[in-house]
Specification:
2 copies of one chain form a homodimer. By secondary structure, chain A is an alpha/beta fold. The first copy, chain A, has 22 helices and 20 strands. In chain A, the strands form 5 sheets. Chain A has an 8-stranded parallel β-sheet with strand order 6-18-17-15-13-11-10-9. A 4-stranded mixed β-sheet of chain A has the order 2-3-1-12.
């Protein structure tokens, strides 16, 4: 597939910086600037010290007595060398080994993408939100449900780049099923690196794919091999096959990343009542055991490699077995996992998720609950934070735009100006001046501050009913649909030096000529 | 207006208790039992100790140096007698007087309605959620916006009684504009006391109305005058006229309540940028000053009278001046007010609010934000928790049902079972038993627990897209509409002894014959 941007950047930006800013693509909405949010809230911690100790003990019990299956001979060989008890693919780790390995991991690290202004700190109070990743299907208000396609994939890249509240571009926001699996990663990453300048990731689906993506990230960043490996430039996310299993390609990809200094998030998919115990503490304990097992391996082969605990613990609908998201059980599991991540001194990844099929009220209360869970748990990375529907089987542009409205509100919620108590904030002089007979619209204290005083939503309609009705009575999802089209249609790609663009295209052409990556995984 | 339940209770309940339970009215959904939730979370506290001290100092500065207008001669006379500095209607209170009076108020109290099983504890970690109150208009998916009417008022009483997650029936859930204002309180309270058995309130709109409502609550509870006054049986909520004013009828109603031992919530309506400073700390400080002014008065005339601080601090849309709700500013203001309420040792009331005109995604993210603000602030009473739209100008049955789904989820979120870490919760034996090859659906640990393990929503649709689509592809608001009709149509009133019902009707008939209450306020 050719470069997505065929006309020269010079021609397209003839209006200069000012003209560029004024064009539709960037002026569709007034949004907050790109800035990584810092979460100042004390986490919500349901567990007492004895609860933390009980879960920690349970994790070590699973790792030392029950063991984890490592379906990767290299990994098993490493762990055997480390002194673990190996029985076929089953590996049991001594408690001290786990503790020692986990202690090697850094509590915080920084990922620097091709545009260094988009670097992300992962750890502490820092948060980063990413687009929906990996749905096989697409849905919008006009088309209904469709199989994911290249055209839709590109649409979502544009939304992901456009919104400043999206900090990283994780997996494919929708699976472009019409692109052959052997070359999909090449086309996808080429488009992603051209249309976005934010942190990207590699799916750990075999050595060739991982190494191709790493090379493309290196080329797009204009980096030497040494510069690439000197610090995190991208990341991968691996899922265990719960219960108690890590599979071959995920472990392979994780080890390649760790050896080259690129972060690995380990996210078990522990649905309570299905792949994990029906009790939330049980599901959290299993999830942590699976995560720490992989982290111990990575710290053994690459001490100090950047890693994070991922959580995807939720419950199923016990009537149907269908996964549920954003439930009360989900919130508490995420909070508990956050407590344990702090106990282990590791960053945490959670998600913005829902089970709803369309971007309606249910989708919103489920997603809102999962975003609050991310805040309350002290999550550092929030996957799927915009665009996810149907338990991750659908990506929707309306939902993407709606979620971005919620994400901007979260960023504003973190602004210390909202609880500042200096003399100008308490406004006692203004209270005396206005007295009991007037109002504050006109006073100097208000005039000096009103433009920045309050968050201005881009999607909410705050008109009264009559004005809203006279303007067509448009519900949120329809407003989001129109906005998504305007953003996509007016999109302009971020700058990318011509030599890097050409080098990327050359690499992709060469790898395609070689047949791409094997598809027999 | 005649008694709303004209056929005899005996005939209507011919099926006996079991038949009663099985009928549509109570079997429309499976809901959680009526039980007051206890919030175990540590509140979110944006203010440091210096912030709390600064706001407290600002409150005392306003009360002692700027003063509050008390537009009620009785109130002014009391405060003069208390040693306050009076200048016409302006009253300035010494710092020590305020502190001393506020310290007289109890940190917690219990309100016992006509059904003592519905008693509510107000204070500490206890929470209680109430229906939307006072919108002049009604909206549903089929009718669109209409002026509030008696028929709709009765509909909402049925919803308020039906849902166990609604703990008190505050103001009129929609204003029955077709009932004359002179007798509206009589008809409204008669219906409320017949169709519900939960805590009710009186609008403080003149002595006659307040005393009529008190008498009706006393009659419905089968209480002597002494029994009525011995403990809280109902409550009132008063709003200051911000900035810096308390008006005549609100103060009158508050004083009547306090003298008779009935709780008073004082809720200033401080919209930052309009009736309050544009800065959130400034708006919170003004709100607290207005609240404590009234509380000091009430504690002076009735030491130890149950009172609560109400917060309604939000911001306006600076483009239009329209009020906004559930905003980032709203959340932080509510959290700060919660910190201050704990500092003063008083219960807190907040709200479930939004600016949206229809029950869509915007309505849900705004309402969800305000409900989380209630949790995080340690609120004890949550007004308008179900049914509110358009900044309180519309009551909607769809929104009512949707909000109740969220309220049930909050109740479940508070359930300590979700973070229990006993041996059965950690489930290490089950993890060993299932191993890496199986799943947890069938294991004994799951079988023993699955029926109670997870919250089962009544409104969420967790089917996959295809099943949902085949069943009509119904969005949340439409599902809520259908459910609201079924609940209203199948409603059965709670038991009320015939002699009390008759006494109520007699009282109403007599007061109507006397002409009701004056309407020249």
């Amino acid at each position: 597939m050719d470069s997505l941007i065929s006309d020269t950047p010079k021609r397209r930006r003839a209006g200069g910086r000012r003209g560029h800013q004024d064009r539709a693509g960037h002026a569709v909405i007034e949004q907050m600037p790109f800035r990584q949010p810092f979460n100042p809230d004390r986490p919500t911690e349901p567990l007492g010290p004895e609860g933390v100790a009980a879960i920690h003990d349970g994790v070590l019990h699973i790792l030392s007595e029950i063991g984890i299956e490592f379906l990767n001979p290299d990994a098993v060989a490493h762990l055997k060398r480390a002194g673990c008890r190996v029985d076929g693919t089953n590996v049991r780790m001594d408690r001290d080994f786990v503790t020692e390995m986990v202690a090697r991991a850094p509590a915080e690290f920084t990922i620097t993408p091709r545009n260094p202004d988009r670097a992300l700190r992962i750890g502490g109070g820092w948060m980063a939100f990413g687009n929906v990743s990996s749905p096989p299907n697409y849905w919008d208000l006009k088309t209904g449900k469709q199989t994911g396609s290249w055209a839709r994939y590109v649409d979502f890249l544009k939304l992901s780049q456009y919104f400043n509240c999206i900090h990283f571009v994780g997996g494919y926001p929708v699976e472009p099923v019409d692109v052959h699996a052997a070359i999909r990663h090449l086309d996808c990453l080429q488009a992603k690196l051209e249309l976005t300048d934010k942190v990207v990731h590699a799916y750990s689906l075999g050595r060739e794919r991982v190494e191709d993506v790493m090379e493309m990230v290196r080329i797009a960043g204009g980096l030497s091999h040494a510069e690439f490996e000197a610090q995190p430039r991208m990341y991968t996310n691996i899922n265990s096959v719960s219960p108690l299993k890590h599979d071959f390609p995920m472990l392979e990809g994780a080890m390649i990343h760790a050896r080259r200094g690129q972060p690995v998030i380990v996210t078990p998919f522990t649905l309570a009542g299905a792949m994990a115990p029906v009790t939330m503490a049980g599901a959290v304990t299993l999830s942590l055991a699976e995560a720490l097992a992989a982290i111990a391996l990575l710290q053994f082969i690459a001490p100090g490699a950047p890693v994070a605990i991922g959580t995807f613990t939720s419950n199923v609908d016990m009537k149907s077995g269908a996964p549920a998201f954003g439930t009360p059980e989900y919130i508490r599991a995420t909070q508990m996992t956050g407590q344990m991540a702090r106990f282990y001194g590791l960053p945490l990844r959670s998600s913005g998720v829902c089970a709803a099929n369309v971007p309606d009220a249910q989708a919103t209360w489920e997603t809102s609950a999962s975003l609050w869970a991310a805040i309350q748990s002290g999550s550092n990375m929030v996957y799927h934070a915009a665009g996810w529907l149907e338990g991750g089987l659908i990506a929707s542009p309306e939902k993407f735009v709606m979620d971005c409205e919620m994400l901007q509100q979260i960023q504003r919620y973190f602004d210390p100006a909202l609880w500042a108590t200096g003399p100008g904030d308490l406004a006692l002089d203004a209270v005396a001046e206005v007295g009991s007979g007037g109002h504050y619209f006109g006073c100097q204290h208000t005039q000096d501050r009103y433009q920045q005083a309050f968050y201005a939503p881009f999607l909410s309609d705050w008109r009264n009913y009559e004005a809203w009705d006279a303007a067509g009575g448009v519900w949120t999802a329809e407003r989001a649909h129109a906005l998504s089209r305007r953003i996509i249609d007016g999109f302009e790609a971020p700058p990318l030096a011509e030599d890097r663009r050409e080098a990327l295209a050359e690499f992709v052409a060469q790898r395609k000529a070689e047949g791409g990556a094997p598809t027999d995984f």
